[in-house]
Amino acid sequence: MSHLKYWVWLSTRRGLAGVTMQRVLDHFGGPERVYYAHAKDVDELTGLSGLARSSLKDKSMREVERILDRCDQLGIRVMTRQDAVYPQRLENIPQPPLVLYAKGRPISLDDQVAIAMVGTRSCTPYGERVAGKLAMELTHGGAMVVSGMAQGIDAASIRGALMAGGTVVSVLAGGLDVIYPRYHRFLYEDVAASGLLLSEYPPGTEHKGSHFPVRNRIISGLSLGVLVVESPRRGGALITASHALDQNRDVYAVPGAIDAPASEGTNRLIQEGAAKLVTCGEDILCEWRDRFPEKLGVQPPLNPQVVEQRLQQLEQAQPAPVSPKTAPAVEKEVDNPESMEYIDWKECRKNLTDDEQVVLLALQEGAKGADGLVEHTQRSARQVLAALTMLQLQGYVAQGKDKRFRAAVKLKME
């Protein structure tokens, strides 16, 4: 327990994320050494924002004690990268979360044939039905479904897996005590009872719009492959697919009608060769059976009548409409450029990929939507979306209420 408070303390430092966080860890040699570092040592570390420096110098443990007390009250377990139970699969991805909060059954995640199922919130009846069917088939075959908790494809996938009697892992974009959307309370409780709820955010954290794309790297990181069931051209599920490709995970996609906007993203993944076409659960299971014969032994097919009955039950579980009260909050808009912090570009760029540098420079000229950035940078949509996710994670970019992206910092080019 002694090490735990230092990991939680470091994970709550503002202005530190991603590559910058890892650089601080590497420099000092661990969270406890970061905590006990003198102010002059923090000041000597280049490439940190003023916010990050002041946050690292704040040694108060009040927030940490509040978080850990709340976890005890709610029965939430806390895993750090130092713990043996921390998923090794996440250690092998770029920018693994320092801390994971868990509620539900203890599951050895690295031993599972985990397949992520993702897709649009605004799914069609076709997408909802296919998600439920594939989740049932994957679960019946011995795989474990990993998803979020959003309405649409996430919910249909979770329900399908639960109907097949499977274990489900749901990764949330807020605290484990904040159920979003609220009408998924029963689904939340079902997952906690038979599976596992995970989040990198401490209890009490609201589900912010910027958290979702950042959360997606955990969904793909825990999984051997990612199945995109239904996604429009700019869908958030494509960000998960992008993370999967960057993490050397397999990507699968369900084809849709050529004139269906909800399937434009999945059809393009297949067309570009980024995803393997899937029409049934066996298309995925057969690729992993040799590696996991004890988990994916050939099962008798599901009774078609039982499948149809369960799909009808799934279709009757219509999600409630999203209202302003239950919609995810959006990060506060950066509306006063004069108040933005200046950071040294020479130091900043050391922590960024080429795509992230190009996107951040483009946003220095003014706010742009995702489509505008694709046109301006001449990068693919996948490259731009992935770069935006990482830039938001590091606090360099924010998304406004108008859905456009803005630089959250000013670059000092000298």
From TrEMBL:
Family: Belongs to the DprA/Smf family.
Ranges where the DprA winged helix domain occurs: 351-400
Entry superkingdom: Bacteria
Region called Disordered, residue ranges: 316-336
NCBIfam families (alphabetical): dprA
Protein name: DNA-protecting protein DprA
Record domain Smf/DprA SLOG: where: 78-287
Gene3D superfamilies: 3.40.50.450, Winged helix-like DNA-binding domain superfamily/Winged helix DNA-binding domain
GO biological process per UniProt: DNA-mediated transformation
Organism of derivation: Candidatus Enterenecus faecium
